[in-house]
Design brief:
With 437 residues, the protein is mostly beta strands. The chain contains four helices and 34 strands. The longest helix is centred in the C-terminal third of the chain and has 14 residues. It is globular and about 55 Å long. The termini are far apart. One of its GO terms (molecular function) is ubiquitin binding.
Length: 437
């Protein structure tokens, strides 16, 4: 699974976590958010906590004070997917079938992408990075892909779409006419940021992961598909799950894909046409709605409706530990090589990633815990208390080493002018046609 080189690179990560595991009294702030509505997505990005809700809005707050910076309105349906890019752009997907692009500095919506015919349920932002590319003769070379930041969106309409993410200075784009009047073909032709439609799934696309020029999608049709997002080619279609697929994770270093769903197992697929076999990780007794690789790709964690988290060695598939203590389905978790933060009905907990040992409760006495996230010294949860939605923000102390967000090779790349000529020319031509002196 994950290469030995990649796994060893993260062996010193524990040194960053004494602030988490040994600080008995982190600063704790509680703020109301979104009235009494469900928080569907929560992300931490450059000193801000950003939440999306089924109330159709997105809220941007200061991590330090909880102060509301922007209340982003425009969607006509619940917001169920949310991503931020390195150039401080926020992207949202909604039950209203649209994708909106927001300027995080001003709070303005700069672009609306139409085309999906149902809820936009999953998205992946693909930043340029150096990846290994294998040619038809089996020779491997290093290349930068993609040439510009891309977005891959997955929808209940059974399709995925690939978009060029607008950058500073690119022209705005809003489809003409009302949403009900948008014809799919017309929207595709008009939008200079639209690149591809990926078809092949026979049911809703539930999850998407992507890196370089590769994307993986998991669907309610029980299949997992792997795509080349530059050409639109379906590279692999993996069948084996007996019920709906809920989560996927891509590991390009080890050339593997992980998937899970209603059938209570994790499957590990090889991105090598010469290897038909795949591994099955068993142990959960109910639906596995969540899986994720650690940033180093050293461990895989699965969260299940059986109220447990299982920790797997991502190199060999061995079970390292089981985190037992929640009393209901795992609703959210995040982990790195030393800690797991998880949420379920009533509690937010911290665990040791190495073996699943319980460390501490961060929050108790709440009703529903919808989302948990951490970054650097910060941890945030969204939960329901007395029929109101609350954000809990923990600061685990000054002195935490806020290491670079992109240790794995992804970073703040500058787009290289003409490397993606088709996209750049299409966008430039569109800008020329709408320019008003």
């Amino acid at each position: 699974m994950a290469s030995k080189e990649v796994a060893d690179a993260s062996s010193n990560s524990d040194s960053k976590d004494p602030f988490w595991t040994r600080n008995p009294n982190p600063k704790h702030l509680t703020v109301p958010a979104h009235g009494c509505c469900v928080v569907t997505v929560l992300i931490i990005f450059k000193g801000r906590v950003i939440t999306a809700s089924d109330d159709n809005t997105i809220q941007v707050r200061s991590l330090e004070t909880g102060e509301l910076i922007h209340d982003l309105k425009g969607h006509s349906g619940g917001v169920w997917s949310l991503k931020a890019t390195n150039n401080r752009t926020l992207i949202s997907g909604s039950t209203d079938r649209t994708i909106r692009v927001w300027d995080l500095e001003t709070g303005e919506c700069t672009h609306i992408f139409g085309g999906h015919q149902s809820t936009v349920r999953a998205m992946a932002v693909v930043e340029p990075e150096i990846v290994d590319v294998e040619d038809e003769n089996g020779a491997v070379r290093k290349e930068k892909w993609p040439k510009r930041t891309l977005l891959v969106s997955g929808s209940r309409d059974h399709t995925l779409r690939v978009w060029t993410v607008p950058k500073a200075g690119d022209p705005t784009y809003f489809p003409l006419g009302d949403e009900d009047e948008w014809e799919e073909a017309d929207v595709d032709r008009q939008n200079p940021y639209h690149r591809l439609v990926l078809t092949g799934h026979m049911h809703a696309v539930r999850d998407v992961d992507a890196r370089g020029r590769t994307a993986v999608s998991g669907s309610y049709d029980t299949n997992v598909k792997v795509w080349d997002i530059i050409t639109g080619t379906c590279l692999f279609s993996f069948s084996g799950h007996s019920e709906k697929v809920y989560a996927v994770a891509l590991d390009l270093q080890s050339r593997q894909v992980f998937s899970s769903g209603l059938d209570s197992i994790v499957r590990v697929w090889q991105l090598d046409s010469s290897k038909a076999e795949h591994d099955i990780l068993r142990g959960h007794s109910s639906m596995i709605g969540l899986i994720a690789l650690s940033p180093s790709h050293k461990t895989l964690v699965s969260g299940s409706a059986d109220s447990t988290l299982r920790i797997w060695n991502a190199e060999g598939g061995e079970l390292q530990g089981v985190a037992v203590g929640h009393e209901d389905a795992i609703s959210s978790f995040q982990h790195d090589d030393s800690k797991i933060i998880s949420g379920a009905t009533g509690k937010v907990k911290m665990w040791n990633t190495h073996d699943g040992t319980f460390i501490r409760d961060l929050l108790t006495g709440v009703v529903s815990v919808w989302c948990v996230r951490f970054e650097g010294q910060w941890c945030v949860s969204a939960s329901n208390r007395d029929d109101f939605t609350m954000l809990d923000i923990w600061d685990f102390g000054l002195g935490y080493d806020n290491h670079d967000e992109h240790e794995d090779g992804r970073g703040d790349w500058e787009d290289e002018g003409d490397e993606d000529k088709d996209a750049n020319q299409k966008i430039a031509a569109y800008g020329a046609t709408v320019k008003v002196d």
